[in-house]
């Protein structure tokens, strides 16, 4: 799909609006983040992989990251040609493997394991990505304790979120 749109800004995030009719042509009835490949003014040469974010009533925000804007030479306020297609190769879910120390902790706590299973894939992905970046055993132990505490149902903060009853 190709269309013309003006680059706008929402908070600090540059985007172009994708109308409900356009989004429906890409993937009818889709209401969650929509994986797409995008080019702005024909750039980058290999389409950029991203997710369009729902904005309500079937429309979406197509946020434009710095690399795409830079390669296309566009800034907020510019009229651009947008090429977008559904990314059929996208596979969601955790991209980082579950660390053995986390897997073991879940196996030892059935409630935590059940609550982990109930989390949306995006939350699991976020936690596993965070765990993959931990550099020391102390950091691992601290964060494992926090994670297990909230997965076991305690109220608290973990990963910049408020948790209650394991979710």
Quick gist of this model?
The protein is α+β, with helices and mostly antiparallel strands and 167 residues long. It has six helices and nine strands.
Helix content: 25-40%
Tell me, what's the shape? elongated
> What is the topology, as strand order, of the major beta sheet?
1-7-4-5-6-3-2
Query: How many structural domains can be distinguished in the coordinates?
Result: 2
CATH class of the largest domain: Mainly Beta
Summed over residues and divided by their number, the pLDDT gives a mean of 92
Number of strands: 9
The CATH superfamily label of the largest domain reads AF2212/PG0164-like
Question: What does this entry look like structurally?
Answer:
The chain is an alpha+beta fold. The chain folds into two domains: 2-86, Beta Barrel (Elongation Factor Tu (Ef-tu), domain 3), CATH 2.40.30; 100-163, no CATH class. Helix content is 35%, strand content 32%. Strands 1-7-4-5-6-3-2 form a seven-stranded antiparallel sheet. A hairpin with a 2-residue loop joins β8 and β9. The mean pLDDT is 92.
